[in-house]
Every structure is written in structure tokens, then in C-alpha cells.
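Obj: model holo form, ligand = nicotinamide-adenine-dinucleotide.
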Amino acid sequence: MRIAMIGTGYVGLVSGACFADFGHRVTCVDKDGGKIDGLNAGVMPIWEPGLEALVKSNAERGRLTFTTEVASAVKDAEAIFIAVGTPARRGDGHADLTFVFEAVRELARFTRPGTVVVTKSTVPVGTGDRIEAILKEEGAEGVSVASNPEFLREGAAIADFKHPDRIVVGAEDERAQDALREIYRPLFLNRAPILITGRRTAELTKYAANAFLAVKISFINEIADLCEAVDADVQDVARGIGLDNRIGPKFLHAGPGYGGSCFPKDTLALLQTADKAGVDQRIVRTTVSVNDDRKAHMVERVSQALGGELTGKRVGILGLAFKPNTDDMREAPSIPIVNGLLERGVKVAAFDPVARHQAEQVLSGVEFVDDAYAAAEGADAIVIVTEWDEFRALDLDRLATSLRGKILVDLRNVYDRAEAEAAGLTYYGIGRGRPSSV
Ligand code: NAD
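Output (holo C-alpha cells):
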């Protein structure tokens, strides 16, 4: 099929490249000319495992092209996906649909009857109806509108796209359903379940999924706090409950609170939808505030590990991206942690394997260093904020030698207390009881 992808960010680029890899002819559009020039020169705008090879091989075969021109991309397209950003609106947290509606108005002028316009962006219930109205206003005739929310995770985006747990399609007419079945046919051959629903249901399903995962994370984080108070180990509790099939082991890792480009904004947007509908969502509302408090409280944990005094201290930070295997810094827990430390007079040296460039755009006053041991050099404490694989097998003896204060604050529970203590470090994990020496 001929596909246009409007928006070539994390979702648009990965989806476009994967669709091309299925054999479709895909044109990815972005209004950011620098991004498109880079892609045309083989330079990836984001760091995502396997993406560069996938983009290059499909571009070489002529199945994947990049442009800033909406007209040339959509005029022959049978399906037009919208994958532009839907950030939280400042002030109220409502999903800001400016980019979506702008894109729809632009593409409306060039679509042909029979085309299917599909939202891949995460959009609130009823957005499909509004898109339909805009298309009519702009004179686009005979166009179907469908919802196909995306569930890929950054850091594992290609594998997720090619082996999804499910594909959700919200479509009110057969033409749209058939087009999406055809687009995803290679995945049905791999037995990926497809769920065809009404458009509004599909839109809500995405928010419900993200809200549920956010609840699960906040739940285990609160259990971790309880573990600390009663000297129990949250890792074992999580395993103990996660082995129950009704619960499952995923998203039960206690840590500094969820961040990233989706959970924070999608939980807020769900609450806005609920408010508008007059239906309170107390669990999600509480989850949002539990998570906000948690992120803010992480500096206090570091302070406590340092005996309550931060001024004049030096702290090494390991990991800045909101999670491993991405360079995405959006809503990363590292941001309030680093800023909180800086505000309290701490000198911060930070290392991230790939997010340095992105981090430099959002953090100032930080010394960015080139590896974990450099971050530890002369520091009073080292703090693991993002659980990159390369932080899982650090030479703890070397780390301890580099550190001035022998303190490891492990906000991701990467290490065991015993191994850290064997290297002479005082260990502070999350929800894992008290250090032996304190
Ligand atoms: P992103 O910011 O990385 O990419 C969006 C791109 O759209 C940008 O490159 C921007 O320049 C471009 N754009 C905006 N308006 C445009 C227009 N009118 N024409 C052409 N290009 C335009 O965003 P993202 O992370 O890819 O997220 C996109 C959507 O997918 C959001 O709704 C998000 O919630 C959803 N989503 C994201 C993820 C994720 O892990 N990032 C996962 C699932 C769903």
C-alpha cells in the first residue's frame, strides 16, 4: 500500500520504517526541515536500537522516503497516518491537539476520495469525530477516519512494532477496517491479535493502558516505601506477587517514579477527559499525585544518604534518559533530581551513554562526563538514576576507589546490598531495608 506518515518523530519514524519493511511504500513527512535533511543523508534524529539499519535498508530499496512536503506525500497515499506530538497543554494537562488539527487541515487539501486518515498519535476520545468535521470543512470528500493507537516502547520500539501484543483499530466503516487489516497483514501472519473496535473505544483504550501501567508503577513504589519502614525487601515482594499470573511481573520495579513522553501526559489527559465527562477517576488522580511527590522526594533521599547536608557536596549521576536504550529526556526523573541537587548547592557530574546531547538542552550547570568512573571521581555519593545495562556490571571496587564518600544511592535497585558493601560502599536502594552500617 502507499502510506504517508505525518510526523517523523519516535513513533512516526519507527512506524514508517517498519511499514516499509513490511513491503509498503512509505513517505514520512516532517515540518522540521533539519530532521528531513538529516534522514535523507542517513542521519537518525533519535537514538533507537536497530533503527538506522532499518531506515537505511528500506530507503535504499526505494520503499521509504522523507520530505517536508505534505502535498507530495499524501496525494497518492491510500492511508495517511498522523503521528505528530500531542503534549500536555500548559496549565490544565489537556492533550494539546494543535499539531494534529494543523496536520489535518494541511493534508485535507490533497487527499483523494477513498483515502483513510488514521491517528497513531495518542488522542483523546472524540478526536476522530473532530478530524472528520475538519476534513468536511476543508472539502475533503469520501475520506474515512480511523484510530490506531501505538503501544511501542522507546528503547525496544522496532521489536514492539513488529511483535505487538495486539493491534487496536478503531474504525466505523469497512473500508477503513479493510485498509488497516491490509497494512498490518504481515503481522497477522505472525498471529498478532487485531482488535477492531469503535473509534472512541480505540482512542480510550490507549489512555486506559497507559494509566493502568502508571498505577502499577505507583503501587509498587508505595509498597517500596512500606518495605523501608518495616525492613522488608520490595524486590522479593515484587517477585512474590509478580509470579501470580493474575498480576504478572512487569511494571513492578520500584524506582524514582515514572517519567517519559507518555505516562505523565496521558494520565493527565485521561483526567481531563474524565472531568469533561463528569466521571471522577480517583485511582488515576491519586497515581498522578503519588508520582509527582515521589519524583520531588528523590533529592531528599540523596540528602539523607549524605547525612542531611547537601551544600558543597559533589554527586555523580549515572543515567539521564527517562529510561535505558533511548536518548529521550522528556519528563525524565533525572531532571527534578539534578535540578533539586543543584538548587541545594550540590556540584553535579553526570554520565549517560547516549542522552548527553538531549540532556544538555534541558539541564544547565551540570558537568557532563564520559563514563561512570569519571562521574564518581571525587564525589561524595554516586546515584544510579537510569538502569542502563552498562551500569549493571560496574567494577564496584573501582567505583569505591574513585568516590570520596563511599555512598551508592541505587534508585533502580540494580545492585544487591551485599555486593555493594563488599566493595566498601554504603548502599541505599529503593524499598530494601536499611544499610547494615546505619
Ligand atoms: P515526537 O515529538 O518525537 O515527533 C513528532 C513529530 O511530528 C516531530 O518531529 C514534529 O516536528 C512533527 N510534526 C508536528 N506537526 C507536524 C506537521 N503538521 N506536519 C509534519 N510534521 C509535524 O513525538 P512522538 O514521541 O513520536 O509521539 C507522537 C505521538 O505518538 C504522541 O501522540 C505520543 O503520545 C504517541 N506515542 C508516543 C510513544 C513514544 O514512546 N514516544 C509511544 C506511543 C504513542
